[in-house]
Structures
1.
Amino acid sequence: MAPPIHVRHLGRSDYATTWRAMQAYTAARGPDTADELWLTEHPPVYTLGQAGRREHLLRDIGVPVLAVDRGGQVTYHGPGQAVVYVLLDLRRRAYGVKGLVQRLEQAVIDLLAAQGVAAERLAGAPGVYVRRGDGAPAKLAALGLKVRNGCTYHGLALNVDLDLTPFNAINPCGHAGMPVTRLKDLGLATTVEQAAAGLAERLLDLLSA
């Protein structure tokens, strides 16, 4: 049986401080270190993944840019976005990185399905999307992970009620012209805390399977 996963509620936290804390937690892990989910939201920041290309930063609008060690390209974090960091030892689980990504995406899909909204994956573009009225996909949730010695950190960001304007200054996750949406625009009235708690509840089931 897989070990339990603990949930930590960080409130609003500085991105760089939280990132360094994830690195330290992972570096200090031993065989009995607990797996954890960290729930938070961040002040405005662009993050650029390890393979990220600065050409996807289209213009400077005064938002800080931080190069980090997750996978993926550039994304935006800000108030009104629910962030779930996943600190797991995959060696104790029955799935690998691909299975973890699928479970992160499924948690968002299930959260929306419970509220009558259909969401989906797109091949070759990790994350969760919804279809606009014209049938085109719009990105609702982004994800990126780092794996070190079989242990993961970073995770999932779900747009709840954040200002979407900063996404106009980047190619979201490296996709030029990709529309971005949020729960508020889908008619779902919820807080960041409620959305994060709903994701955590679903992830505890999906990640423990």
Note: Strands lie at 5-12, 35-41, 45-48, 65-67, 74-77, 81-87, 120-122, 125-131, 137-148, 151-159.
2.
Amino acid sequence: MKSTLKNMVLVLFSITAIAALLVGLVNNLTKSTIAETEQRNKDLAKLEVLPEFEGEPQLEEKCREIGDFKVNVTIVSADDKVVGYAVEAPSITRGGYGDRIYLMVGFVEEGDNTLISGVKVISQKETPGLGANMTNKGNSLELSVVGKNPTELKFAVKKDGGSFDALTGSTISSRAYANAIETAYAGYLWAKGELPSLEDAKSGATKEHDEAKTNDEPEAQKGELSNE
């Protein structure tokens, strides 16, 4: 009996150890695959938010930290000419209904004007059929900004006196989207050297981040049940 019990324990232990090893391996492979997929999607988005161009793209990457957040700016060139700026930015001071919103925003320069050439949602956890509609091509938020000069925009929904047409039934999500666009524009200006020193910019943004009521967690997690 003792021998049989011992053998059973050894077999069970071996099975458990092998299962744990396999789970660990699968988990590592899955993480790696997810990370590679996310990076590939971001790289594609950098070109999607800019106008089509001929030639092989050259990418110059810059990263600006604002508190706990990062704003990644990619300067895209072809044939030694700047095509535009692709800026990956979060909604720093506005949480969405589910979580922070992350956008890729394109900026192009035409003469003395700067225009928003495109917007791609990189990450969102908003409600399907409501806030998640921000991923739909030609949605009201996208139409509020694409082709517009950011200097002429007020980065808030129209309900709050801004320039953005909110998604139906999704004011909280729309506010976060507007804030992410504003953050992206700040990243573009920083990359152009048109903001104050990086330390001043970080200090000001961090102060706003600390003082904003929506900073620590998305609004919906503060007990707000409606996205309106």
Note: The chain is about 40% helix and 20% strand.
